[in-house]
Each structure stands twice: as C-alpha cells, then as structure tokens.
Specification:
By secondary structure, the protein is an alpha+beta fold. The protein contains 15 helices and 21 strands. α8 packs parallel to α12.
Length: about 575
C-alpha cells in the first residue's frame, strides 16, 4: 500500500534538520514521543507504513493493540520515571499492531532527551528474531502475567521502603478504580483509599514490619467514585543483606463478589436453615428477592409430563401459587433445554411473555437458573425478575448459581422422599392385605412390626407385639430352631423352615417361615423378616392321611395273613 508521508509540521522536529533527514532514510521504524502528554511528535515513513496510519499527534497507545492501551501508557510513564534516574533499561519489547491487523513482537531501543525545552523519548523498533531475546521473553512473560491477573482479578505491587516509592501493575490500577494516566501511586494515596474502619489493619501491619516475613490482610477500599470494594492482600517482606526490611511485595485480589456471595449465602442459609419442604423454597425466594433487590422471584418444579411448572412466586405484593406451561421458545424451556444460567438486561416481558407477572406489571430484567438432578435431569427452574433493567448480571448469576445447586439438592431429595413414601405406601398395602403373616425383627430378635394376619396367627392384638421377643411365642424345642435360623440370617442367607408357635390362648399353631435378612442404606444388617403361613390345617390333613395310610397298610397285612 502506498503511504503518504506524514505531516512534517511539528515544531519539535525541524523538517530540514539532520535528524529528520536521517530518520526518514532509516529502514527501521522510529518514533519520538512527548513525555508530557504521551503523544507522537514524530514518526518516520517506515513506522507509518508498518502500522498503516498517520501517527503525528496520535497517542502512543495507537502503536499497540487496543486491549493494551492502559498497560502501554502505564509502562511508558514508569519507563520515563526510571529513565530520569538512570535506572530504566535501554532496550525493552512490545507487540505492535501492524497494518494487516496482526500483532508482532518488536524490540525497542529507547532514549530520553530534550529538544526546544520539551522532554522527548525516542524509540527505534526492530523485529524480534526467531530466537527471542531476553527483552522479548520478558515481554511475553509480562503479557502472560497481565492476562493471568485480569482473569484472577488480582494485581501486584511493590513498596520500596527506603525510598518510600510504590509501584503497581496495570491490574492493580483497575482494582483500585484509578486511571494510570492521571493517578500516581504513592503510599499516602494508597492508605487514603483504605476504608477508615480498616485503616488500623494496615497501620498495625506496618508497625510489625520487623516481626514477620509474610502476612495476609483483608480490608475494604473506597474508590474515587465512592464505590466500596473488599480486597485480600498477600504481603511478603524482602530484606537487605543485614536482614532489615527493604521492600514489601504484595499480590492484591478483589474478592468483593466472592464476599457478597458468601455473605448472601450465610444470610439465606440462616433464613432457611430450619425450613423444610415448601417453607424452604418460600424462604429461599423471599431472601433472593431482598438480597438482589428484585421485584419477584420464584422456584417452580417440573411435573412428571415435563409440560408444566408449578411453584410459589414471592413479591412485595405477596406470595402466589403459579403454573407455567413449558412452551416452545419460552424462557423456562430455554433454561431447561440448554441447562445453563440465563440473564437478560432489559425487555424480558416482551421476549418471554410466558413468564408470570402480576396484573399490570411489566418486567425488564431477569436472571434464571435450571434446577438439575445429580444425573443432569431437569427438575425445575429458579428465576428472579426486576421491573427495571438488570444491571449487576454477574452478581445475580453468581448467587443463582450457588442457590440453584442447593435448591436442586433439596428438590431432588423431596422427590426421593415422595417416591419412597409412595413406595412404602404400596408396600404397606401389600403387607397389610396379604394372606400371609409379616414379621419384622431386629438383630436381637425383638419384634419391630407385624401385619394384621401375623397378629391373628398369634392370637394377639398387633399393637401389643412390637417390643416382644420371638422367643416369647415358642417352647424350648422350637426356640432351638429359631436360634439356628437366626444364625443363618446373620450369615446373610435366606431359608424356609417349619416351626410351631404358641398362641396367646394356649393353642399351638404350625407355621411355615420364609425368612430373609434386611439391611439399612449403608448395607449393614439390621435384622430379618419373614412371610409366615399358618399350616396347621395342612399338618392336620397330613397327619390324618398318614394315619389312614397306616390303617390301610395294617388291613392289607391282615388280609394277606388270613388268605
């Protein structure tokens, strides 16, 4: 691309000067920057062609990737400060945004000088070679550190105690909410931003400097706009050769959102700790409405068909039952199908008219979360709604993410309890209506439960049997059978056997036991149970048949003798 030579009207670089003529003939890009305002005072043809831009009068940051604007400005200002004391390195490195849109690493030979009474900094750019120099490797490490700190919302700082000078990384400026182009980090300015109630923490730390090697402080700051943030600072002391404190080095992290979530969780947990079933969800939605300053919140459970959500909606107007059809394209269908949290800043009533709303009320903002089982199956939804646009989406989603997990666990537990209750009801129905007796005992052979049929076999009221030993209903010979069979149950074996029980009226009844051990949820054996059949009549018939057969056999022998 053919470039037009840059405007040469700058009074700082004389168009006819030897420097200007020499710079324009250079094959390497060259820039001259005003120190006072960070703008380009001169850029040679090679640099303009490299970047595809006219740079005269542009900010220095125009040379670099836009996402590095603040970092670049901070780096330049710190470099100038160090160069003024002779401490700045003559060579550094940076990524340059080239005309084709690609960011490429360049080494920079920098010099600080003065012209026409104005302090200037010049930079000569050379492409990094395939074998990166120390300065390029430092650049890459710096970029990696900056990216990591942005992701972790953490910054670094250094306090040189003897010079009383403070140095911050770019992310530290972001955490404190100040512009590195306008704010100079001094110890006094930093301490002035600490919340007055937390200032004694830092004063105490400074007073203890000789007595510790590292410490962690948690404190609040007040940003210039009045916003309060909560920070955690990990501090290490670096000593000189004599062992005296020389520098403090720290890593500061903004934990405001984490603290808000933890605090909200504590408050909500306190409100719902003693609640159960419906009370749990009502208390949860009410607490979320207050904590997030929402106008309505609801938790709704998906029915067995997957077509209807039912639950309780909580709002300042009062609680109300609700039913939400799971429609194609609706907000609830979207959350359940995609299994992810959803946040909408504005216009939610227009986008999703399926969401419930009191008469005459329109909602703008919404945040919602699907409630999922441990297997990932949809159980329901949790939604908060606001009449105004949703501003703090991150905070709302963070809370919903935590409490939707808690609500999911509770909803899955309730479903399990309901299923178990239905199962137990069916089992009790079977036990109570079966023609066989049911006898449940613990590991000490003490009765836990019997059905009506078992009570009838023993000739005693069913209410009187729990707590009675099975040995109360047998003689010694049959007690020996019980003991032998209970040893089989203890070994985990099933068996069928006959035994004679003593009824409450003194009669005896022959019974057939089909016995099995039973175990708790952890697999520990807790006793055994048996299905019991009264075989007295069968035994009588068998005895009569035996007697008849014996009589027939005698008659046949007599007949043979007589013949």
């Amino acid at each position: 691309m053919e470039m037009t030579p840059p405007d040469a009207s700058s009074p700082l670089i004389d168009p006819d000067s030897f420097f200007r003529r020499w710079a324009e003939r250079l094959a390497d890009p060259l820039v001259v920057v005003r120190v006072d305002n960070g703008t380009v005072a001169f850029a040679n043809r090679a640099l303009c062609e490299l970047t595809g831009r006219k740079l005269l009068g542009a900010p220095l940051t125009a040379l670099f990737p836009p996402e590095h604007d603040r970092d670049t400005d901070l780096w330049f200002r710190e470099w100038v400060a160090l160069a003024s004391t002779g401490e700045a390195p003559s060579r550094s490195a940076a990524f340059i945004r080239c005309a084709d849109g690609v960011d490429r690493p360049y080494e920079i030979d920098a010099t600080l000088f003065e012209a026409v009474g104005v302090r200037l900094a010049s930079g000569l750019f050379r492409p990094a070679t395939d074998a990166p120099s120390a300065s390029v490797e430092l650049l890459q490490a710096r970029d990696l550190l900056a990216m990591s700190q942005r992701l972790m919302d953490a910054g670094s700082w250094e306090w040189r105690l003897k010079e009383n000078r403070l140095f911050w990384t770019p992310q530290t400026y972001r955490i404190f909410g100040v512009d590195p182009r306008a704010f100079v980090p001094t110890v006094e300015a930093f301490l002035g931003m600490i919340h007055p109630d937390d200032r004694p923490l830092y004063d105490g730390m400074i007073a203890r400097l000789p007595d510790f090697t590292s410490t962690t402080l948690e404190f609040r700051i007040v940003r210039p706009g009045g916003e309060s943030r909560r920070l955690r600072d990990f501090i290490t002391i670096v000593t000189d050769r004599e062992g005296a404190p020389e520098r403090l080095v720290g890593a500061v992290q903004d934990i405001t959102e984490q603290w808000r979530v933890d605090e909200a969780f504590r408050l909500v947990a306190a409100g719902i700790g003693a609640a159960s079933e419906r009370e749990f969800f009502e208390s949860l939605t009410r607490s979320l409405t207050e904590l997030l300053a929402m106008d309505m919140a609801f938790v709704a459970e998906l029915d067995d068909t997957g077509a209807l959500l039912t639950g309780i909606a909580v709002s300042p107007r009062g609680d109300q039952k609700m039913e939400i059809p799971v429609r194609e394209g609706g907000a609830c269908r979207k959350m359940l199908a995609e299994k992810r949290l959803v946040a909408i800043e504005r216009g939610v009533s227009d986008l999703y008219p399926d969401l419930p709303a009191p008469a005459g009320v329109r909602f703008e903002g919404m945040a919602g979360a699907p409630l999922l089982s441990r297997a990932g199956e949809p159980l329901g939804v949790m939604v908060v709604l606001k009449g105004a646009p949703l501003r703090d989406e991150e905070h709302a989603l963070a809370l919903l993410g935590i409490f939707s997990q808690r609500a999911s666990v509770e909803l899955e537990r309730l479903r399990s309890v309901r299923a178990l209750t239905r199962s137990e009801a069916r089992l009790q129905s079977v036990i109570q209506t079966t023609m066989q007796g049911f006898w449940l005992i613990d590991s000490e052979a003490v009765t836990l439960e019997v059905n009506a049929r078992m009570a009838a076999i023993l000739g005693i009221d069913a209410k009187e049997l729990p707590g009675r030993s099975i040995y109360d209903f047998v003689d010694e010979a049959n007690a020996a059978i019980f003991r032998a069979q209970l040893r089989e149950r203890g070994a985990g074996r099933h068996s069928s056997y006959e035994i004679t029980l003593n009824r409450a009226d003194g009669d005896q009844v022959a019974c057939l036991f089909g016995a099995s051990p039973f175990f708790d949820d952890r697999g520990i054996q807790r006793g055994s149970f048996a299905l019991v059949s009264d075989i007295t009549d069968r035994k009588r018939v068998e005895e009569e048949l035996r007697k008849s057969e014996a009589s027939l056999n005698r008659a046949q022998r007599i007949a043979r003798i007589g013949s």
